[in-house]
Write a structure and sequence with these properties.
The chain is α+β, with helices and mostly antiparallel strands and 283 residues long. The protein contains 5 helices and 16 strands. The protein has helices spanning 15-21, 56-70, 104-111, 134-142, 278-281, and strands spanning 43-49, 75-81, 120-123, 129-130, 148-158, 166-176, 180-190, 193-194, 197-199, 202-204, 208-209, 212-216, 224-228, 234-241, 255-263, 266-274. Strands 7, 12, 13, 15 and 16 form a 5-stranded antiparallel beta sheet that branches. It has a 4-stranded mixed beta sheet with strand order 2-1-3-4. The chain has a 3-stranded antiparallel beta sheet with strand order 5-6-14, with no helix packed on it. β1 (43-49), α2 and β2 form a beta-alpha-beta unit. The chain starts with 14 loop residues before the first helix and ends with a helix.
């Protein structure tokens, strides 16, 4: 079920655009780690990226540093491949090593923000900012109290006829300290995808992509509308079929579900959970 590491051909287009529109940040300005902060909430970082973006690997390193600082349960990153620097999944050819990670759903998320250069990110659905500012934004957001608590249960039902596919079932338990109208959404992300990536003047054919946005469960970027009453628990369920086809090979053991609750203020709470528990995926 492993994605082949034999990467041979990756077509890179629009070279002039890559060199002029892909944000470059000096190494000394890439990130500023703040003082120790008590995380009152988890924070969602939407990383708008693309396999043809020459500076996006630098942004991926910032994500790693922030995850080390706060923990991957408090800083939840989702790398959304999209836009002019994306390589579409429709161009995937596994035999030739052409693996595209850009999806229509990812492009729909991009359209909700006014982003013209990459890499860019949004912290808890705030305004788009370049990756040199992510650390400061995360530090500010993670220290805020949240009116919502959120827990997530995930289970996987394998297909009876196909070893590569199955159904991901998820349930979010939500408790609010306020009466509010909110939205809930489930995203599927995947780690460990070996696929080409531009990095400076070179193409890394065996680049390991993590936190890759694969799909969303509910229609619309923010998902379904829910009414929360203060002090009363609320449950939201969803399911999605995994994909193993000519365009996408989802490795079940590398999948996680990201659930988030948002309102007009942005993301109120977010949580991530693997589809297959770690102890089971190592067996």
């Amino acid at each position: 079920m492993k994605i082949s590491n034999s990467i041979k051909i990756f077509t890179i287009g629009m070279a002039g655009l890559i060199l002029t529109a892909c944000d470059d940040v000096k190494p000394d300005d890439r990130y500023i780690l703040g003082d120790s902060v008590v995380a009152e909430r988890a924070v969602l970082l939407e990383d708008f990226t693309g396999q043809m973006c020459i500076n996006c690997p630098q942004a991926h390193q910032v994500i790693k540093d922030l995850e080390e600082q706060y923990g991957s349960d408090k800083l939840i990153a989702v790398s959304i491949h999209c836009g002019s620097f994306g390589f579409s999944k429709s161009r995937t050819n596994f035999e030739r090593g052409n693996i595209g990670l850009m999806t229509d759903e990812g492009n729909a998320i991009l359209e909700t923000y006014s982003i013209s250069s990459f890499p860019m990110g949004c912290v808890d659905m705030g305004s788009p900012i370049t990756y040199s500012l992510w650390a400061t934004a995360v530090m500010e957001e993670i220290s805020k109290p949240s009116p919502v608590t959120l827990s997530l249960d995930v289970d996987f039902t394998p297909s009876a006829t196909d070893e590569h596919t199955g159904t991901i079932n998820m349930k979010a338990d939500i408790l609010s300290g306020e009466n509010l109208t909110a939205n809930v959404q489930f995203w599927i992300i995947e780690d460990g995808i070996v696929a080409p990536q531009r990095d400076g003047n070179t193409t890394v054919t065996d680049y390991v992509h993590n936190d890759v946005f694969r799909a969303q469960v509910f229609n619309g970027v923010r998902g379904g509308i829910i009414q929360l009453a203060a002090g009363l628990p609320f449950e939201k369920t969803g399911s999605i079929e995994t994909r193993w086809n000519n365009e996408e090979h989802w490795e079940t053991k590398n999948l996680s579900v990201v659930a988030y609750v948002s309102d007009a203020r942005g993301v109120l709470q977010v949580v991530k959970k693997p589809v297959i528990p770690v102890n089971e995926s190592e067996e």
